[in-house]
Design brief:
single chain; 192 residues; alpha+beta; OB fold (Dihydrolipoamide Acetyltransferase, E2P); five-stranded mixed β-barrel; two-stranded antiparallel ribbon; 7 helices; 8 strands; 24% strand
């Protein structure tokens, strides 16, 4: 009798484990923020960073799909590129889609920041006043907004220069763009 009860309880336990596994698999999208946070923690742990310098000013012009020129409040002119973002490159015969994405990303930046005041959390600055950074228009993280619109892809090795608080929104934005098949991800899903 005891062996029968033991086998029955093991069978019920195994059935519950299978049911739980199926349930978790069906609801796996609920766990994507945790996965993104784990990836952000890993990227932020890889190398020590210096504190980010904040530069505020007015954008004078858009110089590329992910770069712009701004005049700081102190009067100095800076050239910045968005940090953590992979430059758009052509390849595989998709010249028209690459040109379209470059044009759309440049138009996106133009619409949001040209002649407006922005704050750049600079991750890297040179003596010649060129650098990389996370750009904010008000409270909006434009790096993440551009990625979420599907107009930019993240480069995981570039993320290592950013603090955790900047990495996580970028990873979440990329996941949202992939799920919605926007921009780059629309092209990738069309190829498959």
């Amino acid at each position: 009798m005891f062996h029968l009860l033991r086998k029955l309880s093991l069978l019920i336990f195994a059935g519950l484990c299978v049911w739980l596994g199926i349930f978790v698999y069906q609801k796996r999208s609920v766990f994507s923020p945790i996965i993104d946070l784990a990836e952000a923690l890993e990227a932020s742990r890889e190398r020590p960073r210096q504190p980010m310098e904040s530069v505020s000013g007015k954008v004078l012009g858009i110089t590329g799909e992910y770069s712009f020129q701004m005049k700081a409040e102190a009067g100095a002119v800076f050239n910045f590129q968005l940090a953590g973002i992979e430059p758009i490159s052509s390849g595989g015969g998709a010249e028209k889609s690459v040109a379209r994405l470059k044009q759309e990303s440049r138009a996106y930046l133009t619409q949001r920041i040209l002649s407006n005041s922005v704050r750049v959390a600079a991750t890297f600055l040179t003596v010649q006043r060129a650098g990389l950074g996370v750009v904010y228009a008000g409270e909006t993280n434009l790096n993440a907004a551009l990625v979420e619109a599907g107009l930019a892809r993240l480069n995981r090795s570039y993320l290592k220069s950013l603090p955790l608080g900047e990495i996580y929104p970028l990873l979440r934005a990329e996941r949202k763009a992939k799920e919605r098949k926007l921009g780059f991800w629309e092209e990738a899903s069309a190829e498959n």
